[in-house]
Amino acid sequence: METWETITMSRKEAPRAGLVKAALAGQITNAQGAQALGLSVRQFRRLKGRARAEGLRGLLHRLRGRPSPRALAVEVRDRVVALLQTRYWDLNDCHLTEKLQEVEGLALSRSSVRRIRRALGRPAKHRRRPRQHRARRLPAAQLGALVLLDGSQFDWLGTGTPLTLLGAIDDATGTVLALQFRPEEDLHGYLTLLQQLAQAYGLPLALYGDRLSVFVRNDPHWTLEEELQGHQHPTHFGRVLQDLGIGYIPAGSPQAKGRIERLWRTLQDRLVVELRLRGIRTPEAAQAFLPEFLAAFNRRFTRRPAEARSAWRRPPRDFAEILSCRYERTVARDNTVRLGARWLQIPRGPHGRSYAGCRVEVRECLDGRLLAFSQGAPLATGPAPGPEFVLIPRRATRPQRLRASQSPSEEGGRSLNTPQDRTAVALAHLAALAAHLRRGPAAAHPWRRPFSRRGREISRTPKPTGRTFSQTN
């Protein structure tokens, strides 16, 4: 006969044996036993009947040993295990659940995926989110009121070469607005990101980012004009934001812009996997895939804003001209102005007016065009050098009034002589000046004229020559 030691019971089944034995021996009534087990009297009588017929085994649950109707099929489990070990080896539990349902057609819960992963001896791949988030406050609760900017350097393509991904995320909804692959964080990349943002949504009220030198001035240099006005001139990106009416808020720490910092952790987990599954290994192909990725990403992670009214603004008509770097240059005598290795011919103004010697503003646009302005009026436009053009800020050099036939300098304006050439030219000028001073003034120079009246009369009286004197004698 089976005893207590030979039968394994659950925590719910263990109290039944003693109470059923006591009821069979007449020590307690059926009502007392049913009340102690939380059963009805009728159910307790059935337990007594099964105990008389089968012994202690009759007290076990009738479904013990049978497979659960909600259990995964063996074929499905084996397929998930194979995919987890091969194609989807680097996916987290949530991402793997989505891929199994969308791509493989297997509707599994995240807990089932986690149990299969643990059964294989692999640690669960999931990130614990922070318990508290920065509250979305007005007016940032509107879509387009506050946009976070940042860049992340990471091996996005899995080639071993780090690549920088620039991104913009809406603070109110968590929508990823734009992404751009660049070799590094530069002005060209962030202006391109702003252009994508304006074309797809509009202009936001304010941007929130770090203290990168592209955004804010970090140098201690102050010019006399800046000291008089009380603040430094903005960067090229800051001047663009001023013309567009967009505010900029520099963050004091990475934790202050935590929403976009958490976005990079998510993208480093999901975007890298999506690029690997599609075999994308070049930045151009990765950039072409980003719109498809953003559409699926925003459908899952975008939240509803606190206010339904949007704060996006329409960009101005001259938006492409505003996305530029601006420099002050002096027009040469041949009505040309140079910017680095490029030059722009300025046509004559009304009534044949020449702009030689005038100060003009030269803009180098994001698409590579050169624009010249005088007091806000456009003067000339130069074509773009090509699609491979990259907008790089130039150093603000002092303009030189030299001939346009000379070669351009490296940073704008005109080419200057080397220090050795400048020294030789200076010495030659000093030598010419010394020779001129040694000769003295000419005979008809005003310095040789007498100052008094008598002296002027004597100077006007003709002096006898040696030949006249000999004839008189």
3D structure, described in words:
With 473 residues, this protein is α+β, with helices and mostly antiparallel strands. It has four domains: 1-66; 74-119; 146-218 and 229-301, Nucleotidyltransferase, domain 5, CATH 3.30.420.10; 326-416, no CATH class. Helix content is 37%, strand content 14%. It has 15 helices and eleven strands. A five-stranded mixed sheet has the order 3-2-1-4-5, sandwiched between helices. The longest helix has 21 residues, at 419-439. The protein is rod-shaped.
Overall pLDDT confidence: 82
Number of domains: 4
Strand content: 5-15%
CATH homologous superfamily designation of the largest domain: Ribonuclease H-like superfamily/Ribonuclease H
User: Could you say which overall geometry the principal axes of the C-alpha atoms support?
Assistant: rod-shaped
Give the N-terminus to C-terminus distance in angstroms: 180 Å
Radius of gyration: 43 Å
What is the count of helical runs? 15
Question: Unreliable stretches, pLDDT < 50, 5 or more residues?
Answer: 397-419, 467-473
Helix content: 25-40%
CATH architecture of the largest domain: 2-Layer Sandwich
* Structure classification: alpha+beta
Order of helices and strands: HHHHHHEEEHEHHEHHHEEEEEEHHH
Strand arrangement in the largest pleated sheet:
3-2-1-4-5
- Indicate the CATH class of the largest domain: Alpha Beta
